[in-house]
Amino acid sequence: MTKYVTKFGSLDSYEKGGIEIINDDPKHYVFSNIFEVANSSKPWEKVAVGKNMEYVIEAIRAQGTSEWRTCAHDEFPTVLDGEVTIELVKLDKPTLAADHPGSVKLKDEPVGKKMGRIVLRRGHQALLPANSAYRFTAKKPGVLILQTIHGDDTIERWADICLS
Amino acid sequence: MTDVKATKPNLQGYKDFSIGGFHFRRDEFFAHITWPTGKHVMSADTFLRALQRDVAWDFFYGTVNFDHVFGTVNHYGNVDMFAGRFNDAYRKAELDHTENFESPVLKQTFEAMLDDWTNASFDPFASPAETDKPFGQKKGSNTSAVTRRRVAAARMVGVPGDEKIRTDKTHPINRMFADVPQDEPEVYPEPGFEKDVAAFSLFAYLSRSDVTWNPSVVSICKASLYCPTTEEYILPIVHGNDRVDWFIQLSDEIVWDVQDRDSGAPRAKVTMKAGDVAAMPADIRHQGYSPKRSMLLVWENADPGLPERISKGLASVHAVQF
Fold it and tell me: B266, A57: Cβ pair inside 8 Å?
């Protein structure tokens, strides 16, 4: 009986596909690879790899401990490589307007009740609830993608990351 | 709502269906479609797999091409059913034909046809390697398979009160994902925060999917929908976009044939491997090929105003300019 092997990618091992153009411009496909992007990113940089109007998917290199951040809407991180711990705090006083897009860095330690802790490994997805404060920790370099809205700290460097 | 127009069973045991000027008949191997200016024949296999997606997805986003001739265009409340509309030769010969229906009316006919034409041992959502063939004379029905509930989380799978994670009891691990780790995240909520501190294993969840080419919603950030799906063999429709959609290849590999949405002229072939991300422009149609069962994250913007803004030129057909 055939033993099937499921191929996932990682920072250390990934293969990138490509585009065979027949009658188009490769830029129209905004083609990148998350692991390649994370390999050239600084820890916790939020690099957009997908953009659909105001919405983005950010590729984030998980390494060390991130800053505390908060967001007025739900966000969803999914770990694609490594192990990431999330700490959550319910802010006593939410700092953002309800319609503020994307997350912002907190200047100080969050003030509020501890909500809990989550440990994610490859393939795990979590909820970052609106108006909570959160912080990531990764003891070893890893990768996560974040479903969110384009915010002040979203980095767009399409010409550097995409096939053209 | 109107009654479905259907005949008594024919010699092979299948009913004929009519709606507007379209007529549908199946025999042991084929679906026969006629309209006022022409006729078309499709394999029953291809037709039923496409019909299943069109019904289950409420006509989906944009165009669902069953093949190079027949399909539907969703206008979200009403739907065009067409023959030859997106085929240059049919249009030049003026053999193309389009009729518009209220969505629930057409859906009612499609649901009845899907149920009547699907035999007991055939599951149109399953990989061809995991179901019997659809051919032959009518033999029973598979109503539970063709009326599966479409999974759509309100916030995220695994959040208390929302869509549940999959287990051995309901969803055994697929044969091609037997090596996918099944560990779940460690979740430690403080008292009172059990509903907000949540996580689940997306990969384990997908490894237990019993359907192919059937996106389901696992998380929602306003109009941003994560719609992952497991893919094996060929996407049974050729999907024509009315907005940009994005693909994030989570595992293995899919090759996409990309064509011009309106003419079908080839534009590109996109090969995606694990970790690859690509946008599909709003003016293309595409069909995917997955040699091994793979995990694909389809990312949609469900903003209902988007198709009109794009069609009026107020929003680009391309995701990003650089």
Answer: no
Chain A residues close to B278, C-beta within 8 Å:
19, 29-31
Distance from A108 to chain B by nearest Cα, in Å? 22
Say if the Cβ atoms of B186 and A123 lie within 8 Å.
no
B72-98: per-residue pLDDT in tens? 999 999 999 999 999 999 999 999 999
Token duo for residue B138: 């009518």
pLDDT digits (tens, 9 = 90+) for A58-81: 999 999 999 999 999 999 999 999
pLDDT of the residue at B1: 52
Q: Strand (E) positions, chain B?
A: 5-6, 17-19, 22-26, 30-35, 38-43, 63-65, 70-74, 78-83, 97-102, 186-189, 199-201, 219-221, 224-234, 238-240, 245-249, 253-260, 266-273, 276-280, 284-301
* A145 to chain B, closest Cα gap in Å: 10
By the 8 A CB rule, do B290 and B273 touch?
no
Burial category of A29 from C-beta neighbours within 10 Å (exposed 0-12, middle 13-18, buried 19 and up): buried
| Main-chain dihedrals φ then ψ at residue B296, nearest 5 degrees | -125, 130
> Contact B203/A28, CB-based, under 8 Å?
no
CB contact B165 to A (< 8 Å): no
The CATH number of A42-157 is 2.60.120.10
Average model confidence (pLDDT) for chain A? Answer: 97
Superfamily of domain B175-210+212-311: Jelly Rolls (2.60.120.10)
Q: Where are the domains of chain B?
A: 5-146, 175-210+212-311
Q: Cβ contact (<8 Å) for A88 and B277?
A: no
B9 CA: distance to closest CA in chain A (Å) = 42
We find that the CATH architecture of domain B5-146 is Roll (2.30)
- Residues of B within 8 A of A88 (CB-CB) are 193, 196-197
* Four-residue CA torsion sign, B66, B67, B70, B74: positive
Predicted confidence (pLDDT) at residue A140 exceeds the cutoff of 90: yes
Residue A123 has pLDDT above 60, yes or no: yes
